Amino acid sequence: METFEPHGSTQDRFGAYLLPGRVHDPRVAIGQARAAEHTGLSTAWIGERLGNKDIGPLAAAVAQATTTIKVASGVTNIGLRHPIQLASTAMTLQGLASGRFILGLGRLNPAAAKAYGLPLVTNAVVADTAELLRRLCGGEKVSYSGPAGTFPKLRLTDLPDTAPPPLVFAAIGPKSLELAGTHFDGVLLHPMLTVDAVARSAATVRDAAQRSGRDPSQMRVYASVLVAPELPEQQEIAAIAARAVTYFQIVGYGESLTTANQWDPSPLTQLRAHPFFDGSTAIADYRFTRYDLTDVAQQCIPSAWIKAAAAVGSARHCAQRLAEYLAAGADELVLHGATPELLGPLMAHAANCTGSTGPAIQGCGNARIGPS
């Protein structure tokens, strides 16, 4: 594969999630988005959760409360909305945001699809949905019958005076990464990946883009990184280790992450058998808050996993860790865990760790080897 040089400046190398995890008041996102914009972050990401973080109204509110920061869904699951409804939502948000919206899509969990009475989202459905959305957002009249459904005649009646939003696909495994490189404008990588895993994932995506006749340098790689810069211990555990529990506890997701990181998956068995879960295989993130899971996290999540796949400790050390992820091939890091209003010191150090065309780790000063 050709050598890839990351594009963009320091100012567009970092984004952050708003309202991470379970929340009870979506209005908090407004202050967090303004804090993210004030801090100099480039993108405010919204992880959709049904009931309290619907991407339509929440992204619209964030777009109106800010002026420069991009607003991204990270992610909206394919299959939850009819394609014309999803395209309409995307273009309305793009108009409200004056071209700052990014549509991040993901694959609906098979268990959720079954519970909701929806068909499984196959690779063919993902690929065809991306094409349908491009055509609808571009103003085309579309007739389609295939894996994504049967739609005799689709068309958006009116469109804002702005280009369609970029399409980004959330991926972990190699087939999903190849889908992203072949059919999307970018990829959103899952939290709790090591630097090496991000490098391998970025290469897979760009290789797929090149094989499909696309320019790999135009494929934007967003790597999600859990960060806890200088947080109190309990807040740090909740932001990182307890959040990791919500990933690794899910059957399938945990295996995908350990495979991507080339880790021994045996700790997953201990985690899922913990008495706290009382034998239930229900997704922990739907039942508990992060603070409920701190004891489980300390007992079952190996410290080596946290050290290798997150950024914890002093702001300077965390900045160095972020520079390593950028050097691995990520265009932009999506900071998760600590909320935007807590990221000021980290971003001050990160500005010294990245140059205009890529990481400059030597500029970080004497960063510590491990978390403080």
TrEMBL record:
The keyword Oxidoreductase applies. One of its GO terms (molecular function) is oxidoreductase activity, acting on paired donors, with incorporation or reduction of molecular oxygen. Gene3D superfamilies: Luciferase-like domain (3.20.20.30). The keyword ATP-binding does not apply. SUPFAM superfamilies: Bacterial luciferase-like. Pfam families: Bac_luciferase. Keywords: Oxidoreductase. Residues 20-331 form the Luciferase-like domain. InterPro entries: F420-G6PD/mer, F420_OxRdatse_MSMEG2249_pred, Luciferase-like_dom, Luciferase-like_sf. PANTHER family: 5,10-METHYLENETETRAHYDROMETHANOPTERIN REDUCTASE, PTHR43244. This is LLM class F420-dependent oxidoreductase.
